[in-house]
Amino acid sequence: MSHHTPVAKSNGDRKAAVGNVGRPPVAWAVPGILFFAVFAIVPLAIAVYLSFCEWDGLDSPAFTGLDNWTRLFNDSEFGQAAWLSLLLTTISWVFQTPVALLLGVWAAGRQRSRAFLSAIFFIPLLLSTTAIAMLFRALLDPNFGVIQTIGPWLGIDPNVMGSSTGALLVVAFVGGWQFMPFHTLIYQGGARQIPEVLYQAASIDGAGMVRQFFHITLPQLRHTMTTSSILMIVGSLTYFDTVLIMTKGGPGTDTTILPYLMYRTGFQTYDLGYAAAIATALVVVATSISLIMVRLSGFGTMRSTREGM
Q1: pLDDT tens, 13-38?
Q2: Three-class secondary structure assignment of the chain
Q3: I need a labelling partner for 309 at 20 to 30 A (CA). Which of 87, 140, 183, 280 fits?
Q4: Domain 42-51+64-296 falls in which CATH fold?
């Protein structure tokens, strides 16, 4: 009887085998790439082209070169709208991130009431932005809304929507109330991936819940926070429904952010070429901020510890 001795694989063969395990073929990405190209790349390319044209939506676009872009950089209204968009984004991030992070970590635990309370908390995520904006507009109506009764008790002016600061804060609050559950889900998933052994070792060393949160939970959720922040920033920069229904850019132009300015320019004054320039500038700003965050956080160099398994 002959015996066959197995031949040991070289390190290169083992690395190649491990590298190929779990990696789907490129063909699997084709449907996603086609969908993204048709519904994202092509419309974006059309918008970029229209930003160099004069177009009223009826006649054929007339190429005008850099006229729209020259007007854009000299337009004080665009500058104010850009500043308000960045301010709204900052307020939304500062408001939503700590609350979503704490709720996500709490929801990842094993409390008895966790599932029930989480289900209630996630209800706003299921509602449409239009319905939520109409609801809060009714609640904050200075003449007939609940704010007329409870506002003085809380030290809030019932006409909170009539001030520039109040209107902007209300828009940020309403957006956060709806989308904070989404970011809570992100943090909940990230918190559940943290190895339990880290907390067990910290408890043995005498670390309490607060120290465990700042020395284990937060560092482990660094990349999760980057993902949530990018989605939050892009979402805040593209607020539209809430502003349209609740403030219509007012009072005055104090909540006229870039998406609403784009809508007003394109569909109220029918200056669609200039509106396309505003839209393109908004895409550039949102993409730039996202890339800067990825670069500074090191998110782009993250590698999965399960890769190849």
Answers
A1: 555 544 555 667 888 889 999 999 99
A2: CCCCCCCCCCHHHHHHHHHHCCCCCHHHHHHHHHHHHHHHHHHHHHHHHHCCEECCCCCCCEECCCHHHHHHHCCHHHHHHHHHHHHHHHHHHHHHHHHHHHHHHHHCCCCCCHHHHHHHHCHHHHCCHHHHHHHHHHHCCCCCCCHHHHHHHHCCCCCHHHCHHHHHHHHHHHHHHHHHHHHHHHHHHHHHCCCHHHHHHHHHCCCCHHHHHHHHHHHHCHHHHHHHHHHHHHHHHCCCHHHHHHCCCCCCCCCCCHHHHHHHHHHCCCCHHHHHHHHHHHHHHHHHHHHHHHHHHCHHHCCCCCCCC
A3: 183
A4: MetI-like fold (1.10.3720)
